[in-house]
């Protein structure tokens, strides 16, 4: 008989197979894949030794899509079929992206359920499908290096990515045939790459300036876990703006400002980018620009000139830095470490200005392009089970409160914003009407008191509630947000156990600008909202009281009330009826107090009568024991 092997407690069995795991930075401009080999996390290059894969997919009429074109090809080839920056459209609806989409040469078509698709010669593709192509290319790369199929990956996403954006990323991974072990926030990944989780407890700032976006995040490391305290940024600020500023300078120098057509502009942008990247290594660059008349402009740009052009752009990163400190409720001096992330933080001026702002020398030792992928690879290695004694936990927060709609168009928040995930919260609700057998559950996201000022995430119905009087049914609604930030909602009627639920998969997401707007609105409207909430609560309460009394009067008003008593109640009911839809909550409150007073005797008689009925309907021994 074969015996099972049991290893020493605390010691891993020596036969544990090494699992193939990778970390993926699915970026707006560039994507990377990294893996841990022989205890060292490193990014993986293509056959030419290029580690950065431009997040660009070119569709062709015949043949499979090409992923990761060079800039040269991107400019000269086929702009209508060459999809870049697709991350900006992940999890977004047609309405969300309208203004943004105009900035790109490719065309969107409106498809079913409000989901945008991109028109190409090879057919229409959703942002999820385009992202899946990028992921597939990275998968091939890492599987060749590891000589076998991947067991799982960790994919990084911006900390502010909402549910829809994370879900869209998950779908893309699924399409690419990848098993996602966990999503990891980009700033957290960068902190892990620097081993801040091995260091002292404290608060860290992660400054990420990429190709088209700027993100600043505040992480707290304490008791072995990271928590995102706050994030801020600018979704339209990055290396592209620097390229544009330099291109404008070049056009001016070469005297071709007004004559530049789109294609020439693209070309000059390309030269600007090359110059920018060279200037991080050397003090000056030589440039040649072809004018529309065929002549050439030759010139030079040195670091000082470059710095002067881009200073205003870098300066724009400082406002979100101030904001994030305020949001996190901390002071500048609370920050222990600053980590630089993103290709644009290679620029010496960026490091200098960020360092000055935070009063410290930022971490720059790990290549800022690669740092996120490296952190993700370290985490993937642990989650895949290759480091059985490491139980690092990572906490994220939800960006906006989650709640459900209650009577009167009001929102009841189940999970407040900035709650760390994973999290499960439940609350009991009840029916509004007698005999109500179904309940509509409307899941919303946002900070405002009224449903219409928040974002609708999903609707579903709980059916099969046994008919009971209003308020008697107990429906337990549970919200669960998993470690990836995905929400599932369930509703259960307690007496019968009937249950239903959904995984919230909204058809479109919110831009970070919108998230910010919603937060701002909730602050500016806070006092209005409180007043509206109070009014709605009285209106709902009045409607409920009105209905309950109507039913009771129909049932045994004749039998239990004298005509004088009945007239008094009717008058009070009429009075309530005339104010209950109005805007004056005090009037409603007053009418309800009057109604309450004139009907309390009736309520008591009804109660006595029903106890009497109940007792006479049963045999006495049922009540013994
Ligand atoms: P994303 O996170 O948006 O995908 P990356 O972190 O890869 O972007 O950053 C891409 C940006 O970094 C581009 O604008 C690129 O021009 C810029 N970049 C890369 N290397 C350098 C460099 N040496 N100097 C200045 N900018 C650089
Ligand atoms: Mg990035």
CATH-derived topology of the largest domain: Nucleotidyltransferase, domain 5
Q: What class do helices, strands and sheet pairing give?
A: alpha+beta
Distance between the termini: 58 Å
Q: Work out the radius of gyration.
A: 31 Å
Number of helices, where a helix is a run of at least 4 consecutive DSSP H or I residues: 15
Q: Roughly how much helix do the residues carry, as a percent range? A: 25-40%
Largest sheet: 6 strands, mixed
CATH architecture descriptor name of the largest domain: 2-Layer Sandwich
Overall geometric form: elongated
**Chain-averaged pLDDT:** 85
Could you say how many structural domains there are in total?
Answer: 4
Question: What is the total tally of β strands?
Answer: 29
CATH H-level superfamily title of the largest domain: ATPase, nucleotide binding domain
Ligands in the model, by name, code or SMILES, are: adenosine-5'-diphosphate, magnesium ion
Question: What's the assembly state of these chains?
Answer: single chain
The unreliable regions are 1-15, 505-509, 615-625
Strand composition percent = 25-35%
